[in-house]
Amino acid sequence: MPTDSSLESAASRLPPLGQRAATLVATYETRRGARVILTRRPVTLRRHPGQISFPGGMIEPSDLSPLAAAIREAREEVGLVVPPGIPATPFVPVTTLTSGIVILPFWVRLPRVPRLKATPDEVAQILRVPLADLTSPGILQSIPHPRRPNQTTPAYVWHGQVIWGATAQMLDELLRIFPLLHG
Question: Would the pLDDT of 69 be above 60?
C-alpha cells in the first residue's frame, strides 16, 4: 500500500489539469462476496472508446480535490452516491500509454449495494464484477495489445469482457491489497 509521503511525492510530479483524471475504485459486499464497479465506455467516445474502466474522468478546475472529481464523475456516469465520511484510500497514479493522461485512483468501500444507472452518452454498460472471479485461475491472460501490433499485454478476461491497460493495473493493486484494506 502506498504511503502518504510516496503519494505526496508522486502528486508533486503530476501534469497540469487537462492531463489528469480521477477514478473511483468502488467495492461493496454481497452475500456472495465483494464486488467492484466497472463500466464499459461507449464506442462513440473520443478517448478510450469501448474500453472497460472505473467510473471517473478529467479533473476540472472547479473540483476541490482529485477525490472530489472522482466522486463527481462517478455520480454523473453511473449515479453512484458516496455517503459523506466514507474513507478513501488513494492508489498509485497510473499513466495511460495512448493518451498520456495521469489517473489518480481512489478506493472506497461502500456500506451497501449501490443503486446505479448508466448515463448513456458516458457509459454503455455497468459491470459489477466479483473480486473472487478476478483471482480465478486463467482469468489473467496475456493478450495481443489492442493498439500495438506484435506486442502483448496482461488483461483480465471476465465473461468475454477484456479488461486491460490502466484499468487492469488498478485492479492489480486492488487485488493485491484488498485483504489488507478489507480486514
Answer: yes
